[in-house]
User: Which sequence fits this backbone?
């Protein structure tokens, strides 16, 4: 298992893939428009799971409980970026934090049992008060993330 370093833990609202440098300004402007209109909120991390499945995991994650606000935020980001030509995600939004990636995917009964044991476990809460545009650079030692900009939530939001 290749674990995500604590400073790299994050919740992805929309994965953009490779973005041409000349489009980054428009992406940043779209996020700058979305963030102030959405209120800050608290998320509770609960449950462990895996993609594509707990019996054949490639990615191990912690889930989010009662994440209506993050789903609404992800939808607003999706809509704003669709206006810039980024295609909508083909799957429903899955609110999770990636904890690790399995180096050599295979059936692992111990990992499957651990995921089942942690399926209902609560890991704590955290406040979501900003949106960031992140660049990720992949390397053999894992991803390295660089914030290209961040915007506070709730500056212009109505409660």
Assistant:
């Amino acid at each position: 298992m290749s674990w995500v370093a604590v400073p790299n833990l994050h919740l992805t609202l929309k994965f953009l893939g490779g973005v041409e440098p000349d489009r980054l300004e428009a992406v940043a402007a779209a996020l700058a428009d979305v963030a102030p209109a959405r209120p800050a909120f608290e998320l509770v991390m609960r449950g462990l799971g895996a993609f594509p499945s707990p019996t054949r995991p490639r990615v191990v994650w912690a889930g989010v409980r009662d994440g209506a606000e993050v789903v609404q935020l992800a939808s607003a980001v999706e809509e704003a970026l669709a206006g810039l030509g980024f295609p909508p995600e083909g799957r429903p939004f899955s609110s999770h934090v990636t904890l690790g990636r399995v180096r050599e995917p295979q059936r692992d009964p111990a990992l499957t049992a651990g995921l089942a044991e942690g399926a209902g476990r609560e890991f704590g809460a955290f406040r979501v008060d900003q949106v960031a545009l992140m660049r990720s650079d992949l390397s053999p030692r894992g991803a390295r993330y660089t914030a290209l900009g961040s915007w506070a939530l709730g500056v212009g939001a109505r409660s």
Notes: The chain has a mean pLDDT of 90. Residues 68-82 form the longest helix (15 residues). The chain has one domain: 2-152. The helical segments are 24-37, 68-82, 109-117.
